[in-house]
């Protein structure tokens, strides 16, 4: 059993945790750190953010000033995406190999799951849904792959191909999901954004990017 637990990836540990626990508790955290001491920091962050999201109030409506900030940030994001795509084209000649999960790939370059989500302007729920390929790939804006490519230092084409792979089968509840989605169903990225814990201005920014894809 010990050898099997040592082989568990961080993504697998997160999935098993939420499959066995409906709510984040101190007792569960202590037990899982005992089982997976190599992921102590990640588990602490995971449970802390989950508990925080359980207490979040409903998102407020955007004000005029919020809208202005969204536009300014959108321009900044566009510049980042263009830069990322340019850098990935330069390295497109390098051999691309598949990787297991986004979370594990982030760990390989020094990012915890929480840090990886923040670097890509996502929350942990969104990251884990993308990590498990529970999001319809046709609904994911190209900039999502571009951001992961920049942070993980991988070709953007490889990230996009990862999203196209079959969804990961998860027993029990999906991570931070509200309710139990169908095992084979994939959520639209825009719907995942709306149910996320992102700040209203960040949600608005992402929803502007998904509007054309969703035909809204």
Give a topology summary.
Elements lengths: L1 H6 L2 H11 L5 H10 L4 H15 L9 H27 L11 H7 L4 H7 L4 H8 L10 H11 L3 H9 L24 H6 L5 H15 L2
Helix pairs in contact: 3-4, 5-9, 5-12, 9-10
Oligomer class: single chain
Order of helix and strand elements from N to C terminus? HHHHHHHHHHHH
User: How far apart lie the N and C ends?
Assistant: 50 Å
Q: How many DSSP H or I helices?
A: 12
Mean pLDDT: 75
Low-confidence stretches: 91-96, 171-175, 177-183
Which term fits the overall shape?
Answer: globular
Which sheet architecture does the biggest sheet show? Answer: none
Please give a handful of descriptors for the protein shown.
216 residues, mainly alpha, 12 helices
Brief write-up:
The chain has 216 residues and is an all-alpha fold. The chain has helices at 2-7, 10-20, 26-35, 40-54, 64-90, 102-108, 113-119, 124-131, 142-152, 156-164, 189-194, 200-214.
Task: Describe this protein's structure.
With 216 residues, this protein is mainly α. The chain has one domain (1-216). Helices cover 61% and strands 0% of the residues. It contains twelve helices and no strands. It has helices at residues 2-7, 10-20, 26-35, 40-54, 64-90, 102-108, 113-119, 124-131, 142-152, 156-164, 189-194, 200-214. Helix 5 (64-90) packs across helix 12. It is globular, with a radius of gyration of 18 Å. The relative contact order is 0.15. Mean pLDDT is 75; it is low at 91-96, 171-175 and 177-183.
């Amino acid at each position: 059993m010990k050898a099997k637990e040592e082989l568990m990836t961080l993504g697998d540990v997160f999935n098993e945790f939420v499959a066995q626990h409906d709510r984040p508790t101190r007792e569960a955290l202590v037990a899982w750190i005992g089982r997976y001491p190599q992921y102590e920091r990640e588990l602490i962050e995971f449970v802390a953010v989950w508990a925080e999201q359980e207490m979040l109030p409903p998102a407020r409506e955007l004000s005029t000033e919020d809208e202005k900030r969204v536009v300014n940030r959108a321009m900044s994001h566009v510049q980042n995406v263009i830069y990322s795509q340019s850098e990935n084209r330069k390295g497109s000649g390098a051999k691309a190999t598949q990787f297991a999960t986004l979370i594990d790939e982030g760990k390989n370059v020094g990012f915890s799951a929480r840090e990886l989500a923040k670097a890509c302007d996502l929350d942990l729920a969104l990251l884990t849904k993308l990590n498990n390929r529970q999001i319809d790939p046709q609904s994911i804006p190209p900039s999502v792959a571009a951001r992961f490519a920049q942070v993980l230092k991988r070709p953007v084409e490889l990230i996009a191909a990862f999203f196209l792979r079959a969804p990961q089968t998860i027993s029990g509840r999906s991570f931070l999901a509200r309710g139990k989605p169908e095992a084979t169903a994939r959520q639209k990225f825009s719907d995942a954004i709306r149910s996320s814990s992102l700040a209203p201005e960040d949600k608005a920014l992402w929803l502007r990017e998904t509007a054309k894809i969703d035909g809204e």
